[in-house]
């Protein structure tokens, strides 16, 4: 528990004083003055390389940020997390996603005095055995045909991770299998997938930590009803399996708990891709590749746990983010992966980071004294370049960017990889250096523009630059590298939460909307008009319009 507000700590105040000078710096000058800046400001871990040299800071800034991490007890909280202490104190839960990817003999985590490694590895063994049977064609549908399609029904952490990883690692997929993901309660989502699959050869995975999430349960019910138009109820066991912590609800739904893959309350939804929630991944890419994915994350865990703060990749990435957020006032962070198959990575990070650190109350129950989690957004890099990068280059807000580049492609189409990387590196260079009025003038003069036209154009064509970015390099988009990268972002999120003094592992903010939706659902379904006094005028009018539209649709 922190008793001191962040802004009252000595380290934070030292950073504020330092910022008065640092605010004057331009990245162009920092690079000019320090030719070995890249050498000094990059770090390697678990096969990844993070270049953080294009941030508006110097060695003094970093050393003050390290003091801040120490003063906020990052190391002690990290060790408490790894050992299984209940650091998610508002839910009285340990936070042990790291135990899911640790080799059995390297896992010392305990919950309530009980080691967790044995049950983790028993479930992994079940995943291995099941995925091998499905992939090998021994697990068959009710008419004896092999499984060709896997439909994961889940939302939030029970969707974003598996979908992102299955997409990123599609190179490793089994030729016979296609994975589909249904998350949205909007029936168009399920409808579209059902139109593409055959009940005889489809395996549904109902993935929900709680097994009570409205969207997932409705989608699962509708998928079961669709299946029963073709197969019989005794065939369900061959086509429906569950991933959950809630065995009671799983059997109430009609899934045999033999076909349930459990996990535990000490795995947060947004940290659950390493648990049985990763079942679609193991099915699609095979257990051995899934194990490499876990090993990559474990390599990053070891680095995070063992490396000194000064050369600790997640700590550095987190502290650079704190500098940008709390001293340079950046309200958002853009994620720009330069790899088509990482297209769902920004959405994955939105949940990871914003559901973890989108908080305003500290661990001791008082409001935070600084801004917390920036908004996270983005898309694959080259597409973003032709859409919103204009704002990043010349808009009024400074938005830091995480560029993610993969050095080795898995295609062999000539020229594309060079073009892709050229774009990635050019963007970070442009954000860093900009283009000043003299450079613009020289360009326009070379084109022979008359002085009057030239003067009018210069302000529009000038770029301030000095816009911070990180570049993360992956050797290739392998299971190991992807696992390491996700773990990097998890630990970055952890360190920032520790510095802000918030609980990164609960999510009370999503509850209110869920409760209100229940009331409104009943009103939308009811024959009698709802009592208008229960809602504000806007909500009442919207409910009335929806009821009217439904009535009109019924009458044809
Ligand atoms: O509503 C938010 C949330 O609780 C997330 O934290 C979680 O990942 C998602 O819903 C899905 O929850 P479940 O896996 O229990 O269906």
UniProtKB/TrEMBL annotation:
EC class: isomerase
Gene3D superfamilies: 1.10.1390.10, Glucose-6-phosphate isomerase like protein, domain 1
Keywords attached to this entry: Cytoplasm, Gluconeogenesis, Glycolysis, Isomerase
Catalytic activity: alpha-D-glucose 6-phosphate = beta-D-fructose 6-phosphate
Pfam families: PGI (PF00342)
GO cellular component: cytosol
Subcellular locations according to the entry: Cytoplasm
Family per similarity comment: Belongs to the GPI family.
Protein name according to UniProt: Glucose-6-phosphate isomerase
Gene transcribed to yield this protein: pgi
């Amino acid at each position: 528990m922190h008793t001191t507000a962040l802004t009252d700590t000595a380290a934070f105040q030292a950073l504020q004083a330092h910022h008065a000078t640092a605010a004057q710096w331009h990245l162009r000058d920092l690079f000019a003055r320090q030719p070995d800046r890249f050498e000094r400001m990059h770090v390697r871990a678990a096969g990844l390389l993070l270049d953080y040299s294009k941030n508006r800071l110097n060695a003094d800034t970093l050393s003050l940020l390290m003091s801040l991490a120490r003063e906020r007890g990052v190391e002690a909280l990290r060790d408490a997390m790894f050992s299984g202490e209940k650091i998610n104190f508002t839910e009285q839960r340990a936070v042990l996603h790291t135990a899911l990817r640790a080799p059995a003999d390297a896992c010392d985590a305990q919950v309530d005095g009980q080691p967790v490694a044995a049950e983790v590895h028993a479930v992994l063994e079940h995943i291995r055995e099941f995925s091998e049977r499905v992939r090998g064609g021994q697990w068959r549908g009710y008419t004896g045909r092999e499984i060709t399609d896997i439909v994961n029904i889940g939302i939030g952490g029970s969707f974003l991770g598996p979908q992102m990883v299955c997409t990123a690692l599609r190179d490793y997929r089994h030729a016979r299998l296609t994975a589909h993901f249904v998350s949205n309660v909007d029936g168009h989502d399920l409808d579209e997938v059902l139109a593409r699959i055959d009940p005889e050869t489809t395996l549904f995975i109902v993935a929900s930590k709680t097994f009570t999430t409205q969207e997932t349960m409705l989608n699962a019910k509708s998928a079961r009803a669709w299946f029963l138009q073709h197969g019989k109820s005794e065939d369900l066991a061959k086509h429906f399996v569950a991933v959950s912590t809630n065995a009671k609800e799983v059997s109430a739904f009609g899934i045999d708990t033999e076909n349930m893959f459990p996990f535990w309350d000490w795995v947060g939804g947004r940290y659950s891709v390493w648990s049985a929630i990763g079942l679609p991944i193991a099915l699609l890419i095979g257990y051995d590749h899934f194990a490499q994915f876990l090993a990559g994350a474990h390599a990053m865990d070891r680095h995070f746990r063992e490396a000194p703060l000064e050369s600790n990749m997640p700590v550095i990435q987190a502290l650079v983010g704190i500098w940008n957020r709390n001293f340079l006032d950046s309200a958002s962070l853009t994620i720009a992966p330069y790899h088509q198959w990482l297209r769902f990575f920004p959405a994955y990070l939105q949940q990871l980071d914003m559901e973890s650190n989108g908080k305003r109350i500290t661990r001791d129950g008082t409001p935070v004294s600084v801004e917390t989690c920036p908004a996270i957004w983005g898309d694959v890099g080259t597409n973003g370049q032709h859409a919103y990068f204009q704002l990043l280059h010349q808009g009024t807000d400074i938005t830091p960017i995480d560029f993610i580049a993969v050095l080795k492609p898995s295609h062999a189409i000539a020229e594309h990889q060079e073009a892709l990387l050229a774009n990635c590196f050019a963007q970070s260079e442009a954000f860093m250096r900009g283009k000043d009025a003299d450079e613009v003038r020289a360009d326009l003069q070379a084109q022979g523009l008359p002085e009057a036209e030239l003067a009018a154009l210069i302000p529009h064509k000038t770029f301030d630059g000095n816009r911070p970015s990180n570049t993360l390099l992956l050797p290739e988009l392998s299971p190991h590298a992807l696992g390491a990268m996700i773990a990097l972002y998890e630990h970055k999120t952890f360190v920032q939460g520790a510095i802000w003094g918030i609980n990164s592992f609960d999510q009370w903010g999503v509850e209110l909307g869920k409760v209100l939706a229940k009331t409104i659902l009943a009103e939308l379904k009811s024959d009698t008009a709802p009592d208008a006094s229960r809602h504000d005028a806007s909500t009442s009018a919207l409910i009335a319009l929806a009821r009217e539209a439904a009535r009109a649709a019924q009458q044809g």
